[in-house]
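seq:
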Amino acid sequence: MSLTASMLPIIALIAIALLFDFLNGLHDAANSIATVVSTRVLPPKAAVFWAAFFNFVAFLVFGLHVADTLGTGIVSMGVLDSYVLFGALMGAIAWNLLTWWAGIPSSSSHALVGGLLGAGIAKAGFSAIVWNGVLKTIGAIVLSPALGFFLALLLVLVVTWIVARRTPFAVDRSFRVLQFISAALYSLGHGGNDAQKTMGIIAGLLYAGGFLTGPFHVPLWVVLACQSAMACGTLFGGWRIVRTMGSRITDLNPMQGFCAEIGGAITLFLATYLGIPVSTTHTITGAIVAVGAARRTRAVRWNVASSIVVAWVVTIPAAGLVGALFYAVARLFA
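struct:
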C-alpha cells in the first residue's frame, strides 16, 4: 500500500472530526448568542459573527489542557485506533443532529465523550476507561451548571444592589453596552473549551496512525483547523436551540443577560484552565435559570428546564451506544 493510500483513512477521519467541530459550533452557537439575541442587544446575524470571531481567537488565550484530556484521559491511548475514533465521532455527530433537529440544547462535549467511551468499551471492555478523566467529566455535569447558577445569581444580586438608585432606562442602556463584552467573553470560553475536544481526537488519531511521536501534543495546523471549523459552524447559527435557550426557559433583560454570560464565562475559563471538558450548554443553562429565579421562581419555565436536564443525563449513554454500534459496523466492513 502506498503512503498516499495509507493516509486516506486518516484524512477521511480528520474530515469527519472537523465536521463534528462544525456541527458543534452549529449546535452550540445558541450557548454563545442566545442571551444577546433574546435581549435584542444584537440582531441574530451580527451576533453570530461576534460569537464566531471570539470562538476562533480563543486558542490565543488558553492552553490545550482540554485537548490533552480528550486525547489521553477518557480511554487509554493504547485503545485508540481509526475504528474507535470513527465510532466516537459518528456517535457524537448522530446525537448532535438528533438533538439539533429536536431543538434540545444537549451537550456536544458529552456526546463526544460518550461516543469515545462506547467505541473504546466495544473494543477493549471496561479496561479501556481512564477513570480519572471520566470521573472529572461526569462530575462536571453537576458542577458546571451549579457553578454557573451560583455565579450568575451572585452577580444579579450584586448588580441589582449597585444600580438600585438608577432609573430602569439608564440601567438598560448601560447593560446593552456591557453585554457586548459579556457575550464576547462567553464565546471566548466556548471556543476555548469546545474546540479543544476535537483537537484531542485528531491528535489521538495521528498518534494512533504513527504520524506523531513523543509526548502528547497538538500540532498548530490542527489547532487552527479546529478553531476555524467551530467558528464556521457558529456562523450558521442553530436557531431552534437559540429559541429554547433565549426565551423558552425564561425572559431576559440586558442586565440579566450580562450576569448569565459572565457567570457562564467564569465557569468555562476555570474549567478550561483545569483541563476539564465541560458542557457550555449545561453552564449557560444553569446561569439563565439563576437569573430567572432571582426575579421570581415562577419566571422560570421549569418544565422546559427539566426536559433539558433529562437530555443531559441521556447524552453520554445514548452517544456511547451509537458509538459502539458504528465501531462494530466499521470492524465488520474492515
